[in-house]
Specification:
Four Helix Bundle (Hemerythrin (Met), subunit A); 24% strand; alpha+beta; six-stranded antiparallel beta barrel; single chain; 5 helices; 9 strands
Length: 274
């Protein structure tokens, strides 16, 4: 079995997902760096994605790097969300990097929403929800609480660093002002933004309009995206216990990206016939 050498030389039949025109959020697993991507197509082994130059958060990936697409791709009753870059190609005219991701890691289903790898379609099961609006409210509320979890971790980290950091008291105060306090304020602002969004959507639920269509997805992306640069914290703070807490924050952020992508899928489904 030979390796595909470009977009049109695939080992498996692809199903176009032409309605997926909005970018999702993904992360490179080695450093948790977030980037936006467009889902191009899917097969029984993975997904084809594109990273256009126009995306606001972008990365250039390399072959065999592991990425998490933070979307539940369903195949044989199992969900997968991450894997290695199997192939890549750069389209100079489009200024876009195309990649094939071999999905090999299972993920739990947090919501009754997944993307069928074979059909290339979003499947929504509302058995436990009265409507897609109710599901949207739940996802936004969960995102609000996840950002609260990030705040709690940061709250515990600040005094901890003042005790164990291998820097002087004067240096720590400077670090706290530049790094910790600034990050804490950004997280708190985004937490409040998600809370306002949830309250606004809750107040609008009784109306006949589709709640998803009222969303500002770019504003939502800024609210869920990470405020913390892991490499900067790792360089400044030398403590295994502290780094464990930072990585716990990154785990929460991964759930936030999963939730954001779920909201994007609900948003796109709002344009389709019932």
């Amino acid at each position: 079995m030979t390796e595909p050498r470009g977009r049109d030389k695939r080992l498996f039949k692809r199903v176009k997902v032409e309605s997926f025109t909005l970018p999702f959020l993904a992360t490179r697993e080695s450093d948790h760096q977030v980037f936006q991507y467009i889902l191009v197509d899917s097969s029984q082994q993975g997904a084809g994605i594109a990273i256009p130059r126009w995306t606001l958060a972008r990365e250039r990936l390399n072959k065999d790097e592991r990425v998490n697409l933070h979307v539940p791709f369903r195949l044989h009753e199992k969900n997968r969300d991450s894997g290695k870059v199997a192939w890549l190609a750069w389209q100079k005219e489009e200024e876009t990097q195309y990649l094939g991701i071999h999905l090999d890691r299972e993920t739990p289903a947090y919501y009754p929403l997944h993307l069928d790898l074979v059909a290339g379609e979003v499947t929504l099961n509302l058995q436990d929800f009265q409507s897609s609006d109710q599901l949207l409210l739940q996802v936004v509320k969960d995102s609000w609480l996840l950002k609260k979890g990030v705040l709690i971790y940061l709250h515990h980290l600040t005094p901890y660093f003042s005790r164990v950091s291998q820097i002087s008291s004067e240096g720590f105060q400077e670090l706290r002002t530049i790094l910790l306090d600034d990050v804490h304020q950004k997280v708190e602002n985004n937490y409040n933004e998600l809370g306002k969004l949830y309250q606004n959507l809750s107040n609008s639920e009784s109306r006949s309009e589709d709640l998803a269509l009222s969303l500002d997805l770019e504003k939502l992306r800024r609210a869920v995206q990470s405020e913390i640069y892991l490499d900067l914290f790792e360089a400044a703070l030398e403590s295994d216990l502290a780094l464990q807490q930072l990585r716990a924050i990154k785990t929460l952020e991964g759930r936030l990206y999963y939730n954001y992508n779920a909201i994007v899928m609900l948003y796109m489904k709002s344009f389709l016939p019932a």
